[in-house]
Amino acid sequence: MVLRIGVIGGGQLARMMIAPAVELGIDLRVLAEAEGMSAQLAATAVGDYRDLDTVRAFAQDVDVITFDHEHVPQEVLRALVSEGVAVHPGPDALRFAQDKLEMRERLAELGVPQPDWARVTGIDDLQAFLDDHGGRGVVKTPRGGYDGKGVRVVGAATEASDWFERADGEALLVEELVAFRRELAQQIARRPSGQMVAYPVVETVQRDGVCAEVFAPAPGAGERLVQVAEGIGRRIAEGLGVTGMLAVELFETDDERILVNELAMRPHNSGHWSQDGAVTGQFEQHLRAVADLPLGDASPSAAWATMVNILGGPLDGTFESRFDAAMSAHPDAKIHIYGKDARPGRKVGHINVSGDDLDDIVYTARAVAAHFD
Amino acid sequence: MVLRIGVIGGGQLARMMIAPAVELGIDLRVLAEAEGMSAQLAATAVGDYRDLDTVRAFAQDVDVITFDHEHVPQEVLRALVSEGVAVHPGPDALRFAQDKLEMRERLAELGVPQPDWARVTGIDDLQAFLDDHGGRGVVKTPRGGYDGKGVRVVGAATEASDWFERADGEALLVEELVAFRRELAQQIARRPSGQMVAYPVVETVQRDGVCAEVFAPAPGAGERLVQVAEGIGRRIAEGLGVTGMLAVELFETDDERILVNELAMRPHNSGHWSQDGAVTGQFEQHLRAVADLPLGDASPSAAWATMVNILGGPLDGTFESRFDAAMSAHPDAKIHIYGKDARPGRKVGHINVSGDDLDDIVYTARAVAAHFD
């Protein structure tokens, strides 16, 4: 019997699980939202992940269910689990990735360092928080945001009036506007049986709320930073019962504190470097973790690795027409293309480069990405 | 328009092209011999590669045709080329991989060092050759042999009587029995436009005519050996007009000469280490070469890499049941499983390990492979 792993969602994260699945001899099956999605090659079903019957039918033919995204509703997940389906990460963990207010509350219970935050249900609540935090703050919709959507920096509570109206009585999350020197990310893999493996903490550069570049490991990260970041990651993975890959986005503050910004319970953009820069890439690791197989070595395979995203632009022509110039100038770059239509700002691929000199590889990765942007 | 590459043959070499194709955003399509082949995931057609209509129909939907094996008949290949299909490697190159007598003749013209050989059509011819070469020799059927099949060491011409009978007047090839200290392999990638890239020469260990282990680069290989092996590879790739990956199997003789043993015009078992041990693995390189894209960096990404084949055995149980023990003890091993039924002696997977210490990685790779054999 071949091991069968079912992935709900047909985006690029599911697509990037195909290569390690083929290598390991795992039968990867994808429930895609539509025909022609990024993970089309492995799609064995097309349907609505919010529909229990659709998901249930898909789950019948696999040994474990995992995800390309965190949007499958709790009621669908809980129904599967109650019917004996192995779901990783499970609903009890995923709810903390689905709802930022629940996440903040749970991290507070765990004593994990995070920005000041509050649950606010109206303008007055919010203004009180802002008044206590220098007059500014970050308002977030607890559910459904990604890549900067559902996040707004405000200087007055009235700037969130429309969101309160739309929330219709539901609470919003407000967080202090953290003065950070840079952003980091810590990835942890965790199996159902409890084994954990930590990737090195990396530096991430966001532009317009979207991850643009990653440097691995985080430049200048001393022993203290590495230990603190890994410790936070392990505490969250264990405390929230995460199975599979966990990404913890972190602020490194101007006064050198490490605070948790966001969580993702799946392979994450901050870990794409590991496909070509670590002994075990995050997509293979995720498959091993959700199948409860022993985890792979997460060590870097070179001194430095970097990842630069390709964001779709208004340029004419196809990706393929750009291969020639990019590959010719930079034979050491690893080009990853997601098979998605290019739209301005949309993540449509990324470039990985590894080597001994960080400046060199970052130059290379940016140069190659520029051919495709 | 996405680049579409068609592979004739659905074996493990086609399968191992899937991962780099998905990464590069290439649409890989396979013409498989049957349902359920190793490369099933990418199979878009099932049929007989000896049938022109089948191959022609498959070729209509792709930008370039390449191969999992070298068995597509010349007349089929030539018909495609005459109809304007891009075929790489093309029939003019492939015939030297399809017929060992043609190969020996052409290498002699190119002045490439090789064992003494002769075209023999009967017992008397053969005995004369043996008498001139210490009474022993290696008889080979010019066509159709692989993995030790179609190769016989003889001490008297009469030991090949059955082959002469079956050959029905066609010539056989006889070669001197080379006293070699070890076997090596040199891989070269070559584009239609002429660009070539050389992989480091590797040591290969054969057992029962089948590649068992590979050490990359070849231990103790000094500058002279590296230059000689690469020079031979480049001369053959250019002289035979090879496009795609070329593997040249070499003898390193007791008196330190380098002689060409066999050729393969496709990704080759001796290059599987490069999937995890080189900046650009041979399967990605093959896709780039046949699509006439700039070639990737073929440098090793670690000091040493090794590959140990998994040969199917009579053991009970599934591969997956062995994952646990293998992965648990050796988190740094890269496990490659081909999705084929295990039969004794059949190649069903391989293990790659890279690192700073050759003894360590060979120990690891053998230990992991032993879980699956």
Automatic annotation (TrEMBL), chains A, B:
Swiss-Prot/TrEMBL keywords: ATP-binding, Ligase, Nucleotide-binding, Purine biosynthesis
UniProt keyword annotation of Nucleotide-binding present: yes
Keyword ATP-binding: yes
Domain ATP-grasp residue range list: 104-291
GO BP annotation list: 'de novo' IMP biosynthetic process
Catalytic activity: 5-amino-1-(5-phospho-beta-D-ribosyl)imidazole + hydrogencarbonate + ATP = 5-carboxyamino-1-(5-phospho-D-ribosyl)imidazole + ADP + phosphate + 2 H(+)
GO terms of molecular function: 5-(carboxyamino)imidazole ribonucleotide synthase activity; ATP binding; metal ion binding; phosphoribosylaminoimidazole carboxylase activity
Pathway where this protein functions: Purine metabolism; IMP biosynthesis via de novo pathway; 5-amino-1-(5-phospho-D-ribosyl)imidazole-4-carboxylate from 5-amino-1-(5-phospho-D-ribosyl)imidazole (N5-CAIR route): step 1/2
HAMAP family the record matches: PurK
Protein name: N5-carboxyaminoimidazole ribonucleotide synthase
